[in-house]
Each structure stands twice: as C-alpha cells, then as structure tokens.
Amino acid sequence: AQTVTQSQPEMSVQEAETVTLSCTYDTSESDYYLFWYKQPPSRQMILVIRQEAYKQQNATENRFSVNFQKAAKSFSLKISDSQLGDAAMYFCAYRMRGSGSRLTFGEGTQLTVNP
Amino acid sequence: EPEVTQTPSHQVTQMGQEVILRCVPISNHLYFYWYRQILGQKVEFLVSFYNNEISEKSEIFDDQFSVERPDGSNFTLKIRSTKLEDSAMYFCASRGPGGGPLEALEQYFGPGTRLTVT
After folding, report:
1. Is the distance from CB of B10 to CB of B58 less than 8 angstroms?
2. pLDDT tens string B72-98
C-alpha cells in the first residue's frame, strides 16, 4: 500500500523568507501523481501544486515550487517570499495513475508565518 | 469558477441517528469521492464513485456507510447509525473526465461538512 510521510508537524518562517516543507512517500508504482494541498483555518482543501511522476522537470506555480526526487521518493515544497496568507496546514498527497484513484495524504505540516 | 458545494456546513446529531451529507459536484465531472478528517488528523479516503457505482472503498467505509447519486446533480453520503467516532469533517470531491494527458486533472474539494456526534 502507498504511504505518505510528512516528518515536520510544524514549521515557521519569517514573512518574505523562504521555507521548505518535506514529504516522502512509498510506492511500487512507476507512474503516479503528487500534490500539495493547503488547508487554511476554514478547513477548505486548496490545491497548491501538482507533479506528474513521468516528468523530470519540477513543477512551479508562482512562489511555489517542488523538488521532486523520484529515486529517493521525495517531494518537497518550497515557498518563496512567504506571505501571511500562506499560513495554513499543508498536506502532501499521492495518487496512482488511473482515473478513479484515491488520494493518499500525509499527516500535514502546520506552517506559521511570522510578520 | 465552478465549485463543489456541500450541505449542511455543520451537522449535530445524537449517537445512533442516521445522517445524510449532501454534495453537489461540478456539473461535468464524472468521478466523485468522500474523504473524512478527524480533528487534528490527516485526511482519509472513504469511497470513490463512478458510473453510478462504487469504484473503490477504504476499510473505514463499512456497512454503516452508503453513497448515492439520486439525480444528475447530488451525491450523498449516508451514515446509518452514527457513533461518537464518526465525528469529523467530511469532504466531498469531484474530478473531470480522465484519459490521456488530461488524466492528471485535480480533485476539486468542497468546503466540508463538520459532523458532531453527541
């Protein structure tokens, strides 16, 4: 079974600084998708960024980028120029290739942004 | 922008009662999901639904749970006899057509229903 691990329960960063959130996963599949979701206090799940495993290039979305290391099964999220609105719980998630496949989530990392 | 909606936002019920959580997925989506999140814990998959039948379910989704798409727009989760441990946030999600380069389309989450069982 696939598992996702986030070893940092809490992280903090100063406004305008850069922070990296870690995620590792375990799978025997070679083709899959990885995601980072943001959950603010409202508890709405918001997709931040996604990565297809067959793509070697790391995904970027504005201030958000990933470092995808397929051999190491590592998928970290870098947030540049952190803003107060980035404060939230961040979940790493894995999905097998296949149309109906479930998302498997990590335990989450609570990010605090200090002014 | 289209969005997934869920009602009610908060449901309080007594142990042993039946509850129905409702979701309206995005209109052209074909795959539907329920997840739950116990307070302070990670989000867990419950069930996926496609072509009017369950395509996958987790070990959490036992005989107390059922899902239905009663019409072309709603997607419901029923808990037959609620237990205290069913207290959680329940998220509905939907996803568009798959296949080919579009398969990576994301699952769009609703805002959740907070279920409190007393």
Report:
1. no
2. 789 999 999 999 999 999 999 998 875
Tokens for B44? 């867990």
Token duo for residue A87? 């404060």
Q: For the CA atoms of chain B, what is the radius of gyration?
A: 14
Query: Is the CB of A35 less than 8 angstroms away from the CB of B106?
Result: yes
Tens digit of pLDDT for each residue in B32-42?
A: 999 999 988 88
> By CA distance, what is B43's nearest residue in A?
A105
A7 is written with which tokens?
């070893």
Smallest CA–CA distance, residue B1 to chain A, in Å, is 14
Handedness of CA A48, A92, B26, B112 (dihedral sign): negative
Chain B: give the shortest CA distance to residue A95, in Å. 9
